[in-house]
From TrEMBL:
<feature type="domain" description="CN hydrolase">
    <location>
        <begin position="1"/>
        <end position="242"/>
    </location>
</feature>
<keyword id="KW-0378">Hydrolase</keyword>
<protein>
    <submittedName>
        <fullName>Nitrilase-related carbon-nitrogen hydrolase</fullName>
    </submittedName>
</protein>
<dbReference type="InterPro" id="IPR003010">
    <property type="entry name" value="C-N_Hydrolase"/>
</dbReference>
<dbReference type="InterPro" id="IPR036526">
    <property type="entry name" value="C-N_Hydrolase_sf"/>
</dbReference>
<dbReference type="InterPro" id="IPR050345">
    <property type="entry name" value="Aliph_Amidase/BUP"/>
</dbReference>
<dbReference type="GO" id="GO:0016787">
    <property type="term" value="F:hydrolase activity"/>
</dbReference>
<dbReference type="Pfam" id="PF00795">
    <property type="entry name" value="CN_hydrolase"/>
</dbReference>
Length: 276
C-alpha cells in the first residue's frame, strides 16, 4: 500500500481554493503511483471557523469532494461537515468517487484557546472500515490522545490508523511542547496497538497558531519509516507492508485478549457512580 502524506496549508473559509490545493497534491501523488493521499484535519476549511462569517460546511457526499478521488488514488480529507441538524469536524475517506467512510471527531478540545465545542458537535461512533488496500480507522487529532480509542480501533481490526491533525504552537503561553508530546504519543500507539500509524499535520499560520508539520508514518514496531519536514508544505510518499501487522501481532500478541466483559463491567460501575 503506497500512501502520500499531503502536508498542506489552507486558506481559512475558502473551500474552492483548498479543493484546488488538494487536487494538485492528488495529481502529483497519482504520478508517483500512490494508492491513497491523506490530508490534515479540516484541510478543506481551516481551523479558526469562529472568525468565518456564515456557514460554509458541506455534506460528506458533496460531489466536489467525490471528484477528488477520480484522479486515481483514494483520498482522506478533513472538512467542516454539514450533518443537517449539526455540524462536525470530520474526515471522509473517498474511493472511486464514493465516500466509503466518514469519521466525526469524538473528543473536541475546549480549553485554553481551543473552542471546538462552539463550532462542532462531537461524533458518537468509532468504526474501523475496509478500504481497497487495508482495514483502517481514523482518529482526528485529539481523538488520538484518548487511550481507549486507538485500542478500540485495533480491536475492531484496524491495521492502519489515520491521524489527521491541526497541531500548532503559539495558541497558549507556556503550553506543552506539542511536537514532543506527539512523538511520544504516536510511538506508544504504534507499539501497543501493533499497527501502522499515519500522522498528517498541517503547516502555515492561522490566527494565533503556527502549525508545525512533521507528518510521519510509524510501523507496527514503532519505528518512524517516513517523515515530512517541519514548517513547510510537502508531499511524502511511503510504502506500507500491511502483512507486517499480522506478523507483529503474532510474535507478541499484546492485543489478543481484550477482556471485553471486564471492561464493560468496570465502565458500567463507573457510570453507576455518576461518571459519564
Amino acid at each position: 500500500m503506497r500512501i502520500a502524506l499531503a502536508q498542506t496549508d489552507c486558506v481559512l473559509g475558502d473551500l474552492d481554493t483548498n479543493l484546488k490545493t488538494a487536487e494538485r497534491n492528488i495529481r502529483e501523488a497519482a504520478e508517483q503511483q500512490a494508492d491513497l493521499v491523506v490530508f490534515p484535519e479540516l484541510s478543506l476549511h481551516g481551523y479558526a471557523l469562529g472568525s468565518v462569517p456564515g456557514d460554509i460546511s458541506v455534506p460528506h457526499d458533496d460531489p466536489r469532494l467525490a471528484e477528488l478521488s477520480r484522479h486515481g488514488p483514494d483520498v482522506l480529507a478533513g472538512l467542516h461537515e454539514d450533518g443537517r441538524l449539526r455540524r462536525y469536524n470530520s474526515a471522509v475517506y473517498l474511493s472511486g468517487g464514493t465516500p466509503l467512510h466518514t469519521h466525526r471527531k469524538l473528543y473536541l478540545p475546549n480549553y485554553l484557546d481551543w473552542e471546538e465545542r462552539k463550532h462542532f458537535s462531537p461524533g458518537h461512533a468509532l468504526r474501523a472500515f475496509d478500504t481497497p488496500h487495508a482495514r483502517a480507522a481514523t482518529l482526528i487529532c485529539n481523538d488520538a490522545w484518548q487511550p481507549v480509542l486507538p485500542w478500540l480501533a485495533a480491536q475492531d481490526g484496524a491495521e492502519v490508523l489515520f491521524v489527521p491533525t491541526n497541531s500548532g504552537v503559539g495558541l497558549a503561553p507556556g503550553a506543552i511542547d506539542t511536537a514532543e508530546y506527539w512523538q511520544s504519543l504516536l510511538l506508544n500507539i504504534a507499539r501497543l496497538q501493533q499497527c501502522w500509524v499515519v500522522f498528517v499535520n498541517r503547516v502555515g499560520e492561522e490566527g494565533k497558531a503556527t502549525f508545525w508539520g512533521g507528518s510521519r508514518v510509524l510501523d507496527p514496531w514503532g519505528e518512524v519509516v517516513a517523515e515530512a519536514p517541519r514548517d513547510r508544505e510537502a508531499l511524502t510518499v511511503v510504502d506500507l507492508d500491511i502483512s507486517a501487522v499480522r506478523r507483529r501481532r503474532r510474535e507478541m500478541p499484546l492485543i489478543e485478549e481484550p477482556r471485553f466483559g471486564l471492561v464493560s463491567r468496570e465502565v458500567r460501575r463507573l457510570m453507576s457512580e455518576g461518571v459519564d
